[in-house]
Amino acid sequence: MKTLKITNNSPAVLGFVLLSFAVLILGIVTGGSSTQLLFMTYHSSLTNPLTYLRFFTHVLGHNGWAHFIGNMSYILLLGPMLEEKYGAGKILEVIGITAFVTAIVNYILFPAVALCGASGVVFAFILLVSFTNVREGEIPITVILVALIFIGQQVYEGIFLRDNVSNLSHILGGVVGAVAGYKLNVKRK
Fold first, then answer.
1. What's 11-188's CATH class?
2. Taking the complete model, does pTM exceed 0.85, yes or no?
3. Could you tell me the residue ranges of all domains in the chain?
4. Per-residue pLDDT tens digits for 13-62
5. Would you list the DSSP string of 123-181?
């Protein structure tokens, strides 16, 4: 009988999840002060070096277990297949670009709103995975449907619901994922 061994099939994604988990535990231990200081982006002075750090680290912070589990479930579901197809470097690049874009837009358009969590990354992964079979000159109907359903839901919820969820971050993450998916797949074919 052949023995089973556990393998790390997705080091970048697993590293991101484990780092987010450590940040969550640190936030619980510090009563949220570490999350607010290092893992949440908000309108702070541009002379403060932590402002620039938080433009990227806010995707690691989460507002409790439910928030963390919701985001990490999607990331663990979608991330490994994306990392296998595109490589760890490209996945980390998508995470970094998503973090930066969502932070900058939030900083400029919503100065009174703090932002934390990997929801934008989740939406980037959702749209990126829908582009896995795109060929140059083609857009599959499934990509259009995924974009309409996920982005449409966020637009609707952003207009009609007041639930403390950054729907714009979800939309921006989806746009980053769609652009990355298109560029990565057109180049590969």
1. mainly alpha
2. yes
3. 11-188
4. 999 999 999 999 999 999 999 999 999 999 999 999 999 999 999 999 99
5. HHHHHHHHTTT--TT---HHHHHHHHHHHHHHHHHHHH--SS--HHHHHHHHHHHHHHH
